[in-house]
Amino acid sequence: MVRWRSGTVTAVRRQWRGAVELEVTLPDGSSIRALAYPALVGTPEPGDRVLLNVGALLMGLGTGGYAHVVALPDRLPADPPEASDTRDGGHLVKARYTPLQPILLGADEEASPYRDRLADADDVDNLPVVTADLHSALPAIVAGIRADAPRARIAYLMTDGGALPAWFSRTLAALGDELAGTVTVGQAFGGDLEATNLHAGLLAARHALDAEIAVVAQGPGNLGTGTRWGFSGVAVGEAVNAVTTLGGRPIGSLRISGADPRVRHYGVSHHSLTAYGRVALTGADLVVPGGLEPALAEAVEAALEPLSRRHRIVRVPVDGLDAALRSGPAPLSTMGRGLDADHAYFLAAAAAGRHAVTLLG
After folding, report:
1. Which domains occur in the chain, in start order?
2. Of 51, 140, 169, 201, which is most buried, counting CB atoms within 10 Å of its CB?
């Protein structure tokens, strides 16, 4: 349940698109880091009293080390513009039935400028779509695409398995113009476009953002219980089904690691094996990068053999991908490990991006 605290803003720290990092002093004199989303609660300033949700922070769970600002009770923000402003003329309620539920404009709603394009849209026209388990794969996939197609239009579809506000992601802020846009789907919100579900989001990526390649992955964070089925990345398999249903080309970015100390994540993670092996009902291109060290390569091949009955195992050369990964605008980190500490993970994601380029029409 919620653990509440009240405090006073003593400093404004870093800011990035949609988010403000704060230092907050509590009544007992201790200080904590907090994160505010101005679109939801207003823009905090030093001296403001803030109400905080500190539960996940105190329990050491995945909030990036932040308490979250729930309200500025003494200085509430003004109401949003009237519905005549198309950005605020929608009816999509996300984070539904929670105290901070935002009401947003869906890309396919009547007030949307894309309504005419999306009202009868039913196909994504062979759009290559890279699906990934973790948000940390996104900048590596983009790097792989950019290595061979510097001007390709890339859309990111952020699903709701991790963070719900797109504003939490410093990766998205760093990628900037690398993306044609972000579509937040399901309960996720804060993207350039909003969609009710992944199917509608894929159509928006193709027909509203004119994407040539799309990437589907959850927002920052990953919910898991250490069991075969208890993890949010299971939705990767459902994404493969959605892409195929809409006439796209699904490409699986495998979660490969030679550095993760947990046996279930060594080689091909059980997350990928469950999602692609049990949840995906249609075939995808599962990408294996070249250049893996022999023991890891052997483990990967053995793990993927059962999946080859449904999926196409595609082996992709990695020449130039290391340089592309090192020159990208967004820092690379997964589970606290950077590029050199878990090279295979990022190389696999970049190889999936490279393969997507080969499917461009």
Report:
1. 4-71 (2.40.50.140), 115-358 (3.40.50)
2. 201
